[in-house]
Amino acid sequence: MKPYYLLFVFSLLMLSCSTTTTKTEDNTLALEVQQYLDTYTNQYVKLYYDLSLAQWETNTHIVEGDTTNAYRTQVASEAFANFTGSKENIEKTRKYLEQKEKLTPIQVKQLETILYQAANNPQTVAEVVSKRIKAETQQTEKLFGFNYTLDGKPITPNGIDEILREEKNITKRLAAWQASKEVGKNLKAGLVDLRGLRNQTVQALGYKDYFTYQVSEYNMTVPEMMEMNKKLISDIWPLYRELHTYARYELANKYGIKEVPEMLPAHWLPNRWGQDWSAMIDVEGINLDEALAKKEAEWLVKQAERFYISLGFDSLPASFYEKSSLYPAPVEANYKKNNHASAWHMDLQQDVRSLMSVIPNADWYETTHHELGHVYYYMSYTNSEVPPLLRGGANRAFHEAVGSMMGLAAMQKPFLANLGLIEPNTKTDETKELLKEALNYIVFIPFSAGVMTEFEHDLYVNNLPPDQFNKRWWELSQKYQGMVPPAERGEEYTDAASKTHINDDAAQYYDYALSFALLFQLHDHVATTILKQNPKATNYYGNKEVGNFLKKILTPGASRNWRELLKESTGKELNAEAMLNYFQPLMPYLKEANKGRKYTLPEKI
């Protein structure tokens, strides 16, 4: 036998031993990591549920002067923070991620999630985290415990919204709008405090600021996120400019104002923040408010559930109806509740709930379909293939997109006819229908991608001085929305803080902007590829193929890369193409309507 042959055989044996040793080491590490993940998850879910229960009480049962719920929430928040941000968990996770090539992709994703969670609660700065938790609880109570009054009498946010949607008397509109902003006066100090505490918290784990931290969940940098939002605004701007010109002249005529202003006075618009103008348009033949007024509020929620069941989803668990807070607090109640609709995955398992104040009208009809979209997303990714740590949307915008898409689908004429809310042969002005939708979906983009996103960017990244909060808010409103306050608003006001998300869902409002582009991309695919219907006149109801398409998107939760999932589902990257195509027929109509009118927004932004 040749010597070099013996050397070759020896080398193979050594290589085989080395490979076997490496595989054994890898398997040992993967097993060790899995044991850690299982132990961490068990404690995480328990503490998450405790915190959810405390926050639920804080949001659904606000009693002036009663600090019980605030105390419980603070205790639960601190326990959750102490665990997720513990030095031991941070160090272990970092150590394991240094060898991530030896782990499974699903293990790596969970470890990255643990480290991301830790950055919001690092116990290396435990005192800061504790202060932030206390400040957040206090801010929530001030926001939702606020007593709105109009002409010296109590009024609910629903009542203010109704006036802004329907009232033609400009003096009464102004009073209602001003009443809606009073809450901001009491929130400025808390917002300044929270800004500092949120920044300090995430800086302990290397993030520049809280805005950067939130953006990182998309695996994007802040410049990338800001550029994506600016492109959305730029893409829809020509249409928005037409809508802005149209609204100025139409509303001036409606309110009997002879001199048309260059910018829209905020109290002229049918929404507290000017983010939705759709109430400007009544579509003849479709009066959903009138049709729904004959229904009980419960019917709206049950009907939304029936929609999802018709697509092949399961019924909601009985506990959903037993534990949710779905309707306004009784007038005689000695407590208040959060008036902003939301969906809750209380324990990352079977306890799903919604917080709403449903009354039988068109807005709440759409909202129930939207909020149940979140709930069915929760139910879909609560499965054995998705670990509790990854039970979230593919990204945060996916959650909103699914809810908004189902809200859009539920408002289309064939769908409404199917439910008997309009006659099947109802004739309507389709251009007006499209205009009404544009005054919702297109109008929202400059507010969400522009005003809200840039304000919070400036707040957290640029450390916007408190004596410039209101000034900056209205600068952005004028730039992106072409909207101005009825009169000078000094720094004694904090009008930005009247928006819920500025206080309790901070530095994430771009989620909603991206979700609108995403919803039209998904809706276009459903309409053209699955239903073979006009995207403007669809009826999803009862179509199991639509349900299967949705399940493929919902079921993986956050276990998949969001870009890959979107490309795989629709064949395209995230873009505004489908949204622009949907509303393109409006351009010639608006240009004709705006002939001879003065445009006051620039051609490009």
Automatic annotation (TrEMBL):
The keyword Membrane does not apply. It comes from the Bacteria. Keywords: Disulfide bond, Glycoprotein, Signal. PROSITE patterns: PEPTIDASE_M2 (PS52011), PROKAR_LIPOPROTEIN (PS51257). It holds the Pfam family Peptidase_M2. CDD domains: M2_ACE (cd06461). Residues 1-22 form the signal peptide. InterPro entries: Peptidase_M2. This is M2 family metallopeptidase. It comes from Rhodocytophaga aerolata.
